[in-house]
Amino acid sequence: MGCLTSLKKLAPALCCLILSAAPAEADGDNPQPLLRQNQALSPLTIDDKYLQNDIPAKNQLGTLTLHGAVEEASLHNRDVREANLQVSRFKWDYLAAETNRLPNVRVISYLAQQTVNSELVPARANAFLFLSALFPVTQQYRIGLEAKAVKLGRDIAAQKLRQQLDETRMQVKEAYYALALDESLLDDIEDSLRYLSELQKTVADQVKRGNSLKVEEMEVAARLAKARFEETRARNSYNIDRETFNHILGRDLRAGIKLEVIPPVDQLEVDLAQAEQKALSMRPEIQEADMRVKQLRLEKKIILSQYIPNVSVGVVYITLPGFNNSVISKNILAPGLFINWNAFDWGHKAMEAKARSKVEQSAQLSAQSTREVVLIDLHKQINKLTESRQSVATAQVARAAARERMRVSMNRYKYTADKLFEVLQAQSNLADENNDYHKALLAFWEAKAEFERAVGAEQ
After folding, report:
1. Rounded to two decimals, what is the model's pTM?
2. Do 16 and 31 form a contact (C-beta atoms < 8 A)?
3. Most exposed of 130, 201, 238, 244 (fewest Cβ within 10 Å)?
4. Is the Cβ–Cβ distance between 220 and 421 less than 8 Å?
5. What is the pLDDT of residues 141-191, one digit of tens each?
6. Is the CATH code 1.20.1600.10 the one for domain 2-101+137-309+350-455?
7. Residues 418 and 45: beta-carbon distance below 8 Å
């Protein structure tokens, strides 16, 4: 039962069959039939083509490439669209802040019926109108600072958008790899079904000849039934991963997908110093932290600018048509200079400025910590990438040996009446090696997606 037990382990794993257009597999094994016919990209050019946007979204056969999936998610992913809306709202916040530079026009009116007898005001309808138009002068400096603060808020939101794009791209790559490896898992299970079907026929023939027991035929039949069950589980897993992939891309969950073949594991050499420099200059978390420091420094300046008196130039017009004009003029027009200044605030502004200074210092420490966290994350992803590449190379050799052992064991059983136990053991070992190989592949491509996010390769 070791074969089907291993196949159970394969079902939740996401597997990949690395093939090129050549008639043999990349690891030197015999060619295996595919569920689909796709064209593989050259492993020597996949990274350059991807980064230079030379890979189209779809090829002539309608296959969705990895690059096309990333671009589609960058436009239609719901989290990305929400982050885009957060950036776009700052345009209106900035325009609203800029309107404070324009004259402030106020109108106050009053209309009532006089009901109390008075010698000063006759018993008639009374009206009052106050109109002022004041243009801010000294406030322009503070308004400019407030507008800059809004711009910095937009820049911070833009960095959050970049960070969301990085996360979404990584999720797309991982989901793409998972879906492609699910398809390869189905290929491997079909291989196992073919092996077991052939073995079932061979055992049945041996039973007829009297060279094998009926219980051996029943054991193979049981394994074949379980293999078909594992195929059903693998297809269900594929359907769930397809829905997850469609969700990340912002598609309908039921949309069909045709993917390209994942290229073989490359031999990308990482320049540590260059990767660190690029990550420090490109990672949005660092730029966001630096902008937050600038924003707090600007908020402190805005608070201190409140010491400047509010000086405006303008005109005030007052009309009193309903009052005794012999006492109060009917119309008053007063152009002039208007000053509003809170000369003594009990140290309120100074205390707020000191509080902002402390917050600014905290933000500076946070920015430095962010740089260190970015470097630690980068080093971690480089180590994972190196280890996973070596793991794939090791698993390739073991998988090729297990497949050859399975072939030899089958031939021995057919022609030399070797023990069925050895055939079943070889099948179980092959399933285990397939499991390890596909896990290693998935770990490598996930590690590469994490590395590209950590280094900021797509900014």
Report:
1. 0.65
2. no
3. 201
4. no
5. 999 999 999 999 999 999 899 888 988 988 888 888 888 888 887 887 888
6. yes
7. no
